[in-house]
Input
Amino acid sequence: MLSYRHSYHAGNFADVLKHCVQLAIIEYLKKKDKPFCYHDTHSGAGGYVIASPEMQKNGEYQSGIAKLFGRSTGVDVIDHYAALIASLNTTGRLNSYPGSPQIALLAKRAIDRMQLTELHPADFSHLKQMLGNKKKVKAYQQDAWQGLKAMLPPAEKRGLVLIDPSYEVKQDYKTIVSSLQEAYKRFSSGIFAIWYPVLERDATEQFIRSLAQAGIRNMLRVEHCILPDDESGMTGSGMIVVNPPYTLKADMETALPVLGKLLNECGKGSFIIEQLTKE
Ligand SMILES: C[S@@+](CC[C@H](N)C(=O)[O-])C[C@H]1O[C@@H](n2cnc3c(N)ncnc32)[C@H](O)[C@@H]1O
Output
């Protein structure tokens, strides 16, 4: 039984990076009139309430979205994300934080489609409730890896696949590589965004190497650490983006130093932006 619940972590510094990148990709896909498909493999509960006991327990959002809420930075990637969070919190107080499904739901157009998988029964139930009964939006209580096999390629032939495991099952680090290889074979024009934590530097680099050696072209790595590697716990997080929008690298080069100023602990953070495999 899975015990990880994203409600304890929602809105933390890692969510800020992940959701900025997610939204930047969706905004890029919207530049063409053609519909796209948003596929979320590990959807979580969909959206979160700041006052809930889970979010209040460790208050992780305090070191993430709370530092950004209501601010304008002049950097599009960050300001679009902050504006979307503000649109959910119209009283001017931070009451709700969206999960990746709610971000996609708020950002997509009527022509775009969403397909989502989530295994945890309670989170799946919240997710269904948050999504409501909308056209072109469907959630399945199904295994993420099975879902990738069953649902790709999407009929639209363009879109974003967000892969955001909790890594509670250590095997996930290996499963991601083989699942990505298979999914990419079926949907090689798709944009894939894989989130990863930085918990222990050597293990992180080993995971990144295994992705870089998966035989997939055009992978971008975007990583933001709020603490140095020798601190304990999750010191940073990153995204590996396959077929990134051509603007993403430059956008993140502008955004990460600004995010760093807002979120880094004791001014000791760092970031990595690198083309991991050739275009
Ligand atoms: C990090 S959370 C997702 C957060 C969400 N993507 C967001 O940004 O708001 C990971 C989720 O994956 C779910 N999960 C873990 N293993 C899974 C699997 N094999 N298939 C589907 N869901 C899984 C967990 O229950 C958890 O809700």
